[in-house]
Amino acid sequence: MNAKEALKNFFGYDSFRNGQEHIINSILNGKDVLAVMPTGGGKSICYQIPALLLSGITYIISPLISLMQDQVNALQALGIRATCINSAISVPEKEYIYKLISENYYKIIYVAPERLECQDFINFSKTINISMISVDEAHCISKWGQDFRPSYLNILNFINILPKRPIINAFTATATEEVRNDIINIMQLIDPEIVVTGYDRKNLFYKIEKVSNRIKVKKNEFIINYINKHPNSSGIIYCSSRKEVEELTEILNRMRFSVTKYHAGIDQAIRKKNQEDFIKNNILIIVATNAFGMGIDKSNVRFVIHYNIPKYIEDYYQESGRAGRDGNLAECILLYSSSDSIKNQHLIRNDSQQENMSRNLKREQIMSHYGKTFDCLRNYLLNYFGEKRSMPCNNCSNCNRNQQFIKVDKTEEAKTIIECIESINGRYGISTIIRILRGMKMKGNKSDLNNNPKYGTLKGSSEKEIRTLIDQMIEENYLKRVDREFNNNFFPVIELGDNLPIDEIENIRLGIPLLNKYDTD
Ligand code: ADP
Ligand code: ZN
């Protein structure tokens, strides 16, 4: 049986996804592999198919016992002889499993990395023929990653004790150079085939819905409307607080939608039941905090709506990525209001355990700009992960909207704004800057601003136009938003960015609805 036949026979799929066939064939040719694939990209099959086709036994090292059990259940349901050995298993059960492995009953064994340090497991492993060791979530080996797990460092010791070195491969969704090098060096992969399939999830449509006043009402209206338009779709709605989860669930229940809820404040047994109801399609929609989702493999999630903006792009990518794992079209919608981003900044500032506050505040700003950018949303996300694209995707709400926009040259206005901010030494926030430029009278300690050289220079522009232009200039790093401390309070002010000097600025363009063009023509 070859890889393609195994795909059809065991899993019922007709074709491979990006990268899968190459990875599988490399392993079958005896090569070590390091594979970087996005969440939902289909990593599991890349080690499960070789595990079935190689002559000996495969160990799959996986960090979470709950995940492990799910994977084993899924494989057993397909008639594949897989099992796991973990601390939830009694000693007699374990002995029995060892016996079945020795008799070649099981092909695939899931273990947590800590298991490789148990003497009885080591002794047993020396007696069987291990063809391959696959390390899932391999970024846990690196101190650079967010989820460093010390016992991953001992995987190599274990391998070295074995009478014969199996094929080793490592899988992760985290792609930074440092992490990749750590994985190769620490696990001592031999001339590995490195396969990076990239972060793009082509079947996901990204959408921003901006809400600026009557925020809660508008968000709820949007969601009710959306569910009404997609009556049979399964989806996740992420909220940032337990309170919002409760409130929204209540509202949606009253509308008689099929909805349940999940957050860490709900009794564990009920939480588990709610999760099962959702995964087994008894209930269509789950409203949840970010406590929900780790290790959830529900393939037919058709939408992920974020009621609030998450803190970082990594969070958004991972949470929204739970949509469309089956490869069919799905939507990722962010309900954006700048007040949610300000709340996140507060949380970051007040988190005393934070090691790197200023870096995290910067990361937060990058997330926040996702809600404001005029550029392709997909490219914005991919760019963050180091994948540069020049062509817009034509499959996100910005691309759709940009097709109805013209870009207008705003370079002169941009220069005026920069000069104005220069003249006030970056001491004021966006509202005051706009007031100066539009020539609005100011009183009290701000009255000297009425004499600013740039006072009234953009009289003809609306408040919204200037605000949009400043936002865009921040995004392109001509300006930056900084928090100034004054009497123990922080105030957001606008300073000059790093992308200057000013005479090099040209071609700052702004999206203006086409309608306006016809209006003025
Ligand atoms: P990852 O571990 O990379 O997040 P999984 O291995 O859990 O992703 O795969 C995600 C989903 O895609 C699963 O439901 C899996 O069955 C499905 N899948 C994987 N490969 C294919 C394929 N070639 N064709 C169709 N579906 C696939
Ligand atoms: Zn796009």
Highlighted features:
alpha/beta; six-stranded parallel beta sheet; 20 helices; disordered C terminus; binds adenosine-5'-diphosphate; binds zinc ion; DNA 3'-5' helicase
Question: Could you please describe the fold and organization of this structure?
Answer:
This is DNA 3'-5' helicase. Residues 24-193 form the Helicase ATP-binding domain. It comes from Anaeromyces robustus. The protein has 521 residues and is α/β, with parallel strands linked by helices. The protein contains 20 helices and 17 strands. The chain has helices at residues 3-11, 20-28, 43-53, 65-77, 91-102, 119-126, 155-161, 177-186, 215-229, 242-254, 268-279, 313-320, 338-350, 357-370, 377-384, 397-402, 411-423, 430-438, 463-475, 514-520, and strands at residues 33-36, 57-61, 82-85, 108-111, 130-135, 167-172, 193-196, 204-210, 234-238, 259-262, 285-288, 301-306, 330-336, 405-409, 479-486, 489-496, 509-513. The chain has a 7-stranded parallel sheet with strand order 3-4-2-5-6-1-7, sandwiched between helices. It has a 6-stranded parallel sheet with strand order 8-13-12-9-11-10, sandwiched between helices. A two-stranded antiparallel ribbon has the order 14-17. The longest helix is centred in the middle third of the chain and has 15 residues, at 215-229. The model is unreliable at 514-521 (pLDDT under 50). Bound molecules: adenosine-5'-diphosphate (ADP) and zinc ion. Zinc ion binds next to helix 15 and helix 16.
